[in-house]
Amino acid sequence: MTLNILFFSITIKKRNMSPEQAANQEMVEKLYEQNRDRQISMHHFM
């Protein structure tokens, strides 16, 4: 009889961002959404 056991330990920590990093991340998300909306509108146009 063989018993194989695998254990995982997951730790979640909140990352602290500087104001510059937060502003950059917000800009990236905004640009991503704009591009996604543009792609969706072009897809519906065709």
Describe the model:
This protein is 59% helix and 0% strand. With 46 residues, the protein is an all-alpha fold. Pfam families: Bac_small_YrzI. This is YrzI family small protein.
Topology summary:
Blueprint lengths: L18 H27 L1
Query: Per the principal axes of the C-alpha atoms, what is the gross shape?
Result: flat
Structural class of the secondary elements? mainly alpha
The largest sheet, given as strand count, sense and whether it forms a barrel, is:
none
Instruction: Report the mean per-residue pLDDT as an integer.
Output: 87
Kindly estimate the percentage of residues that lie in beta strands according to DSSP. under 5%
Question: How large is the radius of gyration?
Answer: 21 Å
Q: What are the secondary-structure elements, in order, as H or E?
A: H
Helix content percent band: 55-70%
Low-confidence stretches: none
InterPro entries: YrzI
Protein name: YrzI family small protein
Task: Briefly characterize the structure.
Helices cover 59% and strands 0% of the residues.
Name its key features.
mainly alpha; 1 helix; YrzI; YrzI family small protein
